[in-house]
């Protein structure tokens, strides 16, 4: 039986098409392999950079804290020196006033040091009580003063960069309200009326 002429080219075309498709797939696999290798190399570099960044950041934080501590200590040392001189000369001081002036100078110097470090005292005496800035340790009643005014300050409060780091401990004025007196009297009257009106 003779083969049909039209069948021969079809058979020859099929192996060539499969060969081309196979070549194309190999090419795609090679490209994907290269892309994978490049991405893996990038990932390794990013991972190494991140590890280095973590180590460097930790070191910078430690150095920064150490530097700030040193800065604060250096700022306080002159005041400490003045305390030492005052105490050494205390025996030769003829009057208490001179000793007090020396102590006041050191106190002012300490406040200046704190100001240079952005630390400020919280104003409390005569101010309206603010629970953010003040801590009430006691209440007093002084009728000539306003309600909730700070009457006394036990311990000064401080802010660092505007944030409270220690509230002032204070005594607050608490006036007896007229309403409560009226209510107490009304309650007493109601009890008395009830007692009188009770037949038993």
Describe this structure in words.
With 200 residues, the chain is of the alpha+beta class. Among the domains are: 69-117; 119-200, Head domain of nucleotide exchange factor GrpE (Nucleotide Exchange Factor Grpe, Chain A, domain 2, Roll), CATH 2.30.22. Helices cover 62% and strands 14% of the residues. The chain contains three helices and six strands. It has helices at 7-88, 96-116, 178-197, and strands at residues 119-121, 134-140, 150-155, 158-160, 163-166, 168-173. The strands form two sheets. It has a three-stranded antiparallel beta sheet. Strands 2-6-3 form a three-stranded mixed beta sheet, with no helix packed on it. A hairpin with a 2-residue loop joins strand 4 (158-160) and strand 5. Helix 1 (7-88) packs antiparallel against helix 2. The longest helix has 82 residues, at 7-88. It is elongated and about 115 Å long. 6% of the residues are buried.
Helix content: 55-70%
Q: What do we call the CATH topology of one domain?
A: Nucleotide Exchange Factor Grpe, Chain A, domain 2
Radius of gyration: 43 Å
Per DSSP E runs of 2 or more residues, the count of β-strands stands at 6
Residues in β-strands, percent = 5-15%
- DSSP helical segment count: 3
Q: Mean pLDDT, as a whole number?
A: 81
- Sheet with most strands: 3 strands, antiparallel
The general outline is elongated
């Amino acid at each position: 039986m003779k083969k049909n002429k039209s069948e021969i080219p079809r058979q020859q075309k099929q192996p060539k098409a499969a060969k081309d498709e196979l070549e194309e797939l190999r090419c795609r696999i090679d490209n994907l392999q290269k892309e994978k290798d490049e991405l893996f190399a990038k990932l390794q570099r990013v991972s190494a950079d991140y590890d280095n960044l973590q180590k460097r950041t930790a070191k910078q934080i430690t150095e920064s804290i150490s530097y700030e501590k040193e800065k604060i200590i250096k700022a306080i040392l002159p005041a400490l020196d003045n305390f030492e001189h005052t105490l050494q000369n205390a025996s030769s001081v003829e009057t208490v006033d001179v000793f007090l002036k020396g102590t006041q100078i050191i106190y002012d110097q300490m406040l200046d040091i704190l100001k240079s470090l952005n630390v400020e005292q919280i104003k409390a005496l005569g101010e309206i009580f603010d629970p953010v800035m003040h801590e009430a340790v006691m209440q007093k009643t002084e009728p000539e003063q306003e309600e909730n005014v700070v009457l006394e300050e036990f311990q000064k409060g401080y802010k660092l960069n505007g944030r409270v780091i220690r509230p002032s401990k204070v005594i607050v004025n608490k006036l007896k309200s007229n309403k409560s007196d009226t209510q107490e009297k009304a309650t007493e009257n109601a009890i008395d009326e009830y007692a009188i009106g009770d037949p038993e």
